[in-house]
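Table 4 source record.
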Amino acid sequence: MVDSYSTIWNGLLLRCPSLGAFRAQQFIQHSFRQIAERRRWSWLVKYGQFHTQPLQQPTVSLTTGSMIVTGLGTNWGPDIVGQQFRIASTTPIYSITQWLSPTTLVLNLPWYEKSYASINAQIYQAYFTPLNDFFSFISVWDTQQNWQLWLDVPQTYINGVDAQRSDIGQSWVVSFREYTQPRAGTLTNPIQIVGSSSVPQLGGDSSYSGTTTGFFLIKIVAGGQVSTATFTWNKNGGNNAPTVFTSTDEQALQDGVFIY
């Protein structure tokens, strides 16, 4: 019979009651981690697959400084969130952070290129997120082409040889994405998606303290005069905040964001 985790730490606690339950559990966890990290045990190895989404080449319109992508004749669904967006190989790679409608998407950064009334774009999968218990790759191979991909290639090297990521065909390399961002940023002016009334105005010092790029959606619940009208909001498509009454004073949302 194999002893369970509970049996082991309770046995340690019986021998040394002064440890306390929390410390006894820590000792067992630490000892187990030392054993687990000695080698690649079979019970630590898992096999998995990364499936890419089919390349889309929709016709879209884009406005300089806006995070909104408007599709022309598109029928996008919520599953498009997390995929990447670009215009051919001449622009940086943007990520899609939110789906608003079959014809409206939100990017992770404002579109800094020139505006387009109509242009062909590319939507595809460039980044993949491993499971939470992932530690490292042992090997990665392409089962269709029957070859193994290179590992341990830093993103800085890829930036040097293919900064535009101009080749979206066959994969040769697996590289960890450098995603760390500073805890300070700037806010762009609010953009009106629906309606024709005045948009909210930024308050505070227009600084942003979130760890990643955020998209705040503000929705009017009931119209009327200031202190009578109400609104709600969410960040990156999360749960809506409780209904808030408007005020002549600036009101805090989250991560240093204030609005009037």
